[in-house]
Amino acid sequence: MYEDLDPLLHSQLRLAIISMLVSSEKVEFTFIKEETRAAAGNISIQIKKLQESGYIKVEKSFKNNYPNTMLSITDKGIKAFESYVKNLKKYINL
Q: Which of 5, 24, 50, 78 could form a disulfide with 56 if both were Cys (CB 3.0 to 4.6 A apart)?
Protein backbone atom coordinates (compact mmCIF):
# COMPACT_ATOMS: atom_id res chain seq x y z
CA MET A 1 0.00 0.00 0.00
CA TYR A 2 2.75 2.46 0.91
CA GLU A 3 5.70 2.96 -1.36
CA ASP A 4 9.18 3.54 -0.03
CA LEU A 5 10.39 7.12 0.07
CA ASP A 6 13.21 7.82 -2.39
CA PRO A 7 16.33 7.50 -0.21
CA LEU A 8 18.15 9.99 -2.43
CA LEU A 9 15.58 12.69 -1.64
CA HIS A 10 15.09 11.64 1.98
CA SER A 11 18.33 13.39 2.96
CA GLN A 12 17.55 16.80 4.44
CA LEU A 13 20.13 18.71 2.37
CA ARG A 14 19.34 16.96 -0.93
CA LEU A 15 15.62 17.54 -0.34
CA ALA A 16 16.32 21.23 0.34
CA ILE A 17 18.33 21.54 -2.89
CA ILE A 18 15.65 19.80 -4.98
CA SER A 19 12.91 21.91 -3.34
CA MET A 20 14.71 25.11 -4.32
CA LEU A 21 15.16 23.88 -7.88
CA VAL A 22 11.50 22.88 -8.27
CA SER A 23 10.44 26.47 -7.73
CA SER A 24 13.22 28.15 -9.75
CA GLU A 25 14.52 27.64 -13.27
CA LYS A 26 18.15 27.91 -12.14
CA VAL A 27 19.80 28.36 -8.78
CA GLU A 28 23.37 29.43 -7.98
CA PHE A 29 25.54 27.34 -5.67
CA THR A 30 26.10 30.41 -3.49
CA PHE A 31 22.33 30.82 -3.00
CA ILE A 32 22.04 27.21 -1.83
CA LYS A 33 24.95 27.76 0.55
CA GLU A 34 23.32 30.89 1.99
CA GLU A 35 19.88 29.31 2.34
CA THR A 36 20.93 25.98 3.81
CA ARG A 37 23.93 27.26 5.81
CA ALA A 38 25.62 23.96 4.98
CA ALA A 39 29.33 23.63 4.32
CA ALA A 40 30.38 24.06 0.69
CA GLY A 41 32.02 20.63 0.66
CA ASN A 42 28.86 18.93 1.93
CA ILE A 43 26.73 20.75 -0.64
CA SER A 44 29.14 19.70 -3.40
CA ILE A 45 28.86 16.04 -2.37
CA GLN A 46 25.05 16.18 -2.34
CA ILE A 47 24.96 17.97 -5.71
CA LYS A 48 27.16 15.27 -7.19
CA LYS A 49 24.79 12.54 -5.93
CA LEU A 50 21.78 14.36 -7.40
CA GLN A 51 23.62 14.92 -10.68
CA GLU A 52 24.72 11.27 -10.94
CA SER A 53 21.10 10.19 -10.42
CA GLY A 54 20.01 12.44 -13.29
CA TYR A 55 17.84 14.60 -11.01
CA ILE A 56 19.74 17.83 -11.64
CA LYS A 57 21.94 19.45 -14.27
CA VAL A 58 25.09 21.34 -13.27
CA GLU A 59 26.58 24.13 -15.36
CA LYS A 60 29.96 25.58 -14.43
CA SER A 61 31.16 28.91 -15.76
CA PHE A 62 32.90 32.08 -14.62
CA LYS A 63 31.22 35.24 -13.36
CA ASN A 64 33.45 38.29 -12.80
CA ASN A 65 36.51 36.00 -12.93
CA TYR A 66 35.10 33.74 -10.19
CA PRO A 67 33.83 30.19 -10.67
CA ASN A 68 30.04 30.07 -10.87
CA THR A 69 27.98 26.91 -10.53
CA MET A 70 24.36 26.96 -11.70
CA LEU A 71 21.95 24.13 -10.98
CA SER A 72 18.69 23.23 -12.66
CA ILE A 73 16.27 20.36 -12.16
CA THR A 74 15.68 17.77 -14.88
CA ASP A 75 12.37 16.19 -15.87
CA LYS A 76 13.50 13.06 -14.03
CA GLY A 77 14.16 15.18 -10.94
CA ILE A 78 10.72 16.79 -11.11
CA LYS A 79 9.05 13.37 -11.39
CA ALA A 80 11.12 12.02 -8.48
CA PHE A 81 10.22 15.03 -6.31
CA GLU A 82 6.51 14.78 -7.15
CA SER A 83 6.56 11.06 -6.37
CA TYR A 84 8.41 11.68 -3.10
CA VAL A 85 5.84 14.28 -2.01
CA LYS A 86 2.93 12.03 -3.01
CA ASN A 87 4.37 9.08 -1.06
CA LEU A 88 5.17 11.27 1.95
CA LYS A 89 1.55 12.47 2.03
CA LYS A 90 0.43 8.84 2.23
CA TYR A 91 2.51 8.39 5.37
CA ILE A 92 1.23 11.62 6.90
CA ASN A 93 -2.42 10.76 6.25
CA LEU A 94 -2.38 7.41 8.06
A: 50
